[in-house]
Amino acid sequence: ALDAVMVPKVGNAADLYAIDMLASQASWATGRTKPVLLEGQIESALGLSNVNEIAGASPRLIALHFGHADFSATIGMRTIKIGADHPDYVALGEMDGTGVRQAFVNDPWHYPLMATITAARARGLLVFEGPYGEIRDLEGLATYARRAAYLGCTGKWAIHPDQVDVINAAFSPAEKDV
What we know:
Layout: E1 4-7, H1 13-30, E2 37-42, H2 45-49, H3 51-55, E3 61-66, H4 68-74, E4 90-95, E5 101-105, H5 110-122, E6 126-129, H6 138-151, E7 155-156, H7 161-171
Parallel strand pairs: 1-2, 2-3, 3-6, 6-7
Antiparallel strand pairs: 4-5
């Protein structure tokens, strides 16, 4: 039986409201008593700008997911690295005694992820970070997964079997914390 529907590219509350109404009508027509739950994907500039409305759009909504790839495309971000940092997005440190300034990689996903987390948690929803596309970079995946767990995400998507153990380790509590 169908438990939940993942709704991609949610742009505003009306998108979820429409799906909620369809689920209600289908349940009524078939005599289904168990509610079909919804999970919404925030993966556009419009969706992020309306994330607080979206989080409260339906009592069926149980989770929000932030999708890096489609989001970056909608804002014109110059990246093909899904969920990863980019060498062009850096901050420069102070010049040292030899005239060299060290570059520090920034996290281009911090704001949209935190906005999604904040909206979801304010409504008691689960929240998931989308995938890390650099499949062979397990160290990078571990770093971003630990960051997502630290910031309050419930979990993170895996797009390759090799990523599952790394993500599970990042979202499992340390023995000292248990």
